[in-house]
Specification:
The structure is a homodimer of 293-residue chains.
Chain A: H1 3-12, H2 18-22, H3 27-37, H4 44-55, H5 60-82, E1 91-92, E2 95-96, H6 98-102, H7 104-122, H8 125-131, H9 133-147, H10 152-162, H11 169-195, H12 199-226, H13 229-232, H14 238-241, H15 247-251, H16 253-270, H17 279-289
Antiparallel strand pairs in A: 1-2
Helix pairs in contact in A: 1-5, 3-7, 4-5, 4-11, 5-7, 5-11, 8-9, 9-11, 10-11, 11-12, 12-16, 16-17
Chain lengths: 293, 293
């Protein structure tokens, strides 16, 4: 099985299925969580966790719970981000967003439950028996720190505060580092912790993830201008519509393509310190920098 | 210092303060989290964690991070519960609810960040050095399981689905067990894990917490009918207004007072299996059953 199939299959195991699910009065909550989780996406974050575990000497099996945990965090953030009181987006990955299908109340709670379930997954008895309590707790701590108030959620707040204003490039950079890079960095770092728990490996994972995240987010801003709704699976031009300052509005497209290449090269270069086969991680960074959606 | 002071003081340490806070672009997020966390309340859950740690042979110091973690979870659930797409409550503990002060977007994110920060707290390096990685991960797992999709959040969904309908008493009981008892039970169980990690103690903590939680929630339903807005710090009669079936609407006040006593006695009786001084836990159960707000 390839990484993607492994992730898809493992994700399903963390939710009540069949009779167990049907017997729950709150069944609709599980349906709502699965709806967004199964809406696909590129599964970049969990793939990074698996790849980093392998290049650092661990196995894919050991890294899978952490890969699933980070995808749950990413998915919850999308559900909450789409809510009317946030970006108010009706479409996500070409499908109606969670609250358009299940209502705002269930969507809010599905996000809360996915966020919570990420930690149940990373700290489960199965996970602890695979990697030990120390690594499990360490990954959980990094996941909470990088996705919380001074990480991803903090980045969301900077994003909200920047709407309709002309903000300096440093603020945009802070926002990207927190809103996007933090979680991508976390995915890489958890893989390194599972694989070797070697401080040098963790540091490399951090540098790779941070730069990949910056390249990824600037590409997102570029695609919001140059792509079309069908390729992107969501409305384009939403940044302009929301009067958002982005790297593109502040620096122009040419400079942004340059920056994407620069950050991608930095990410790739950082892998030199790892003694394993890092070709897949390099290829992934390149692929991300050339994506069309 | 008494339990309450210890909890209040420790809670503050988990948030950026002074210059560190002021330098954050997302400072308003921290303000919003602290606004709801400092709004007080009775701190019943964290107090239970401290008490159970002590009666099981642990210290208050070891239990404090877990006490703070559970209060963060409780507080996030109140912020999200008050949002317009949920209960749409303007008042909480006699003060404007979070979204009335900070707006819906920041309130949503403050809830997300408090939920996330609970796990950063329970899994922090300081916590692990106090109790070890195994207990830290085990508490985190129980916290995630009991507050998530088949625990507290599941209970919220049952609550939503029950609005404006006549629902059977069994559904209401399921709702209370998940929405209220699960987190109170969790507070007790984490204390027992920190104190001794003895399976019998954990089982007792579970039974005590579950019954205390049921008594607590039925008392809440009673107070919604018999109290006044000033004592309660929130609008009364909201259950009737929302056409909610409650223990009171289904069984009447007299039967409900009986049930509160019954569950309180069960909680107290369960403590017989612990060889320490359980007088404070017994007094707390009695006090809860006699509360006026």
């Amino acid at each position: 099985m390839n990484y993607l199939e492994l992730i898809e299959n493992k994700l399903k195991t963390y939710f009540p299925q069949g009779k167990e699910k049907d017997s729950l009065i709150e069944k609709v909550l599980i349906d709502s969580m699965e709806y967004s989780l199964e809406a696909g996406g590129k599964r970049i974050r969990p793939t990074l966790t698996l790849m980093f575990s392998e290049v650092c000497g661990g196995t894919v099996e050991q890294a899978l719970p952490f890969a699933c945990g980070i995808e749950m965090i990413h998915t919850y953030s999308l559900i909450h981000d789409d809510l009317p009181c946030m970006d108010d987006d009706d479409l996500r990955r070409g499908k109606p967003s969670n609250h358009k299908v299940y209502g705002e109340d269930i969507a809010l709670l599905a996000g809360d439950a996915l966020l919570t379930n990420a930690f149940a997954t990373v700290l489960s008895e199965e996970t602890v028996s695979l990697v030990g309590g120390e690594k499990s707790a360490k990954c959980g701590r990094i996941l909470a720190t990088l996705s919380g108030m001074t990480g991803m959620v903090g980045g969301q707040v900077i994003d909200l505060q920047s709407e309709g204003k002309k903000v300096p490039i440093d603020t945009i950079r802070q926002m990207h580092l927190k809103k996007t890079s933090a979680l991508i960095k976390c995915a890489c770092m958890m893989g390194a912790i599972v694989g070797s728990n070697n401080e040098e490996h963790i540091k490399i994972a951090e540098t790779y993830g941070e730069n990949l995240g910056l390249a990824f987010q600037i590409m997102d801003d570029i695609l919001d201008v140059v792509s079309d709704e069908k390729s992107l699976g969501k409305p384009i031009g939403s940044d302009a519509e929301n009067e958002k300052s982005t790297f593109v509005t502040l620096l122009g497209l040419d400079k942004c393509y340059e920056l994407v290449n620069e950050y991608t090269e930095k990410a790739i270069k950082s892998l030199d310190g790892i003694n394993g086969d890092t070709s897949q991680l390099k290829a992934l960074a390149v692929k991300m920098s050339e994506r069309k959606n």
